[in-house]
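ok, trying the design again with the full structure, not the truncated one.
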């Protein structure tokens, strides 16, 4: 099968996890870029783009909302599970199961509790706060507000290995990117969700996909918003002055949230139950569709 991956202009770790993770889970021998059949895994990628493909295996993908759904009634669709209850309900088939976002099993993969580079470890006892912006939030802006607030920038454009190395050096995470929160939660790192450009860019999709994952872990996700730089803001000020003031304002909000905000973390019992369910789905899919009875996933004891 061919692993379907949405590719943005600069990359996005949530999407890049597909090519990185699935060969580890099922074995490289099951995937080729030349196959007409698609493996549809991590991300909000369950939509009409797949209509012309061959056989489609859905393994944890989510929808972007009820308006862009594919017709999954044909025999060419095999749905092991979807990301969450929002996606399952939108598809309208009672036989569709939801578990959670498949990225929650990343901590179980052998070798993913990697040795952290000593140069990245914090000095002293200061709380190390990571900041994962949305992939479309401008890199320079993200760097500026992270510096203003004293946060460790973790760009979502990093490849998964480098992203995880940085994530695992942090004590807590502020995430605008959903997979920043998903991976932090999976590794037991407390997190907060923020909104900058993501909600405005995605519209209704933003709430749909976040609550889809949140409900799968019985999480009521709370967001905080950074100030919006509207068009009227620049009428009486030079652009550089306006931007500098805006960055400082965002930095103050972030520092206040680090000090006073409520960090979130899913119930470990629920998370572990969902992880077990995904591993069972891996075994079932391997035996039922891939004709590979021997387990290829190596799991941490």
């Amino acid at each position: 099968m061919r692993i379907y991956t949405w590719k943005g202009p600069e990359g996005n770790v949530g999407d890049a996890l597909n090519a990185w993770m699935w060969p580890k889970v099922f074995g490289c021998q099951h995937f080729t870029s030349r196959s007409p059949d698609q493996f549809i895994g991590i991300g909000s990628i369950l939509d009409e783009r797949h209509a012309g493909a061959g056989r489609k295996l859905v393994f944890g993908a989510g929808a972007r909302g009820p308006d862009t759904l594919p017709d999954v009634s044909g025999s060419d669709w095999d749905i092991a599970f979807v990301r969450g209850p929002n996606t399952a309900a939108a598809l309208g088939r009672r036989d569709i199961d939801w578990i959670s976002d498949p990225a929650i099993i990343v901590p179980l993969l052998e070798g993913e509790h990697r040795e952290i580079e000593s140069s990245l470890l914090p000095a002293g006892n200061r709380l190390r706060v990571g900041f994962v912006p949305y992939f479309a939030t401008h890199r320079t802006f993200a760097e500026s507000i992270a510096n203003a607030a004293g946060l460790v920038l973790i760009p979502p454009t990093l490849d998964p290995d480098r992203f995880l190395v940085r994530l695992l050096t942090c004590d807590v995470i502020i995430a605008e990117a959903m997979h920043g929160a998903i991976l932090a939660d999976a590794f037991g790192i407390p997190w907060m969700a923020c909104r900058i450009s993501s909600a405005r860019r995605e519209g209704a999709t933003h709430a749909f996909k976040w609550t889809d994952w949140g409900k799968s872990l019985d999480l009521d996700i709370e967001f905080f918003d950074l100030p919006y730089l509207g068009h009227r803001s620049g009428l009486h000020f030079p652009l550089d002055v306006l931007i500098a003031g805006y960055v400082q304002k965002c930095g103050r909000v972030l520092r206040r949230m680090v000090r006073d905000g409520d960090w979130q973390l899913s119930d470990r019992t629920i998370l572990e139950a969902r992880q077990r369910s995904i591993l069972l789905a891996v075994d079932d899919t391997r035996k039922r569709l891939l004709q590979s009875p021997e387990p290829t996933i190596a799991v941490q004891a």
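Keeping the full-length input from now on. Residues 76 and 256 are 51 Å apart (CA to CA).
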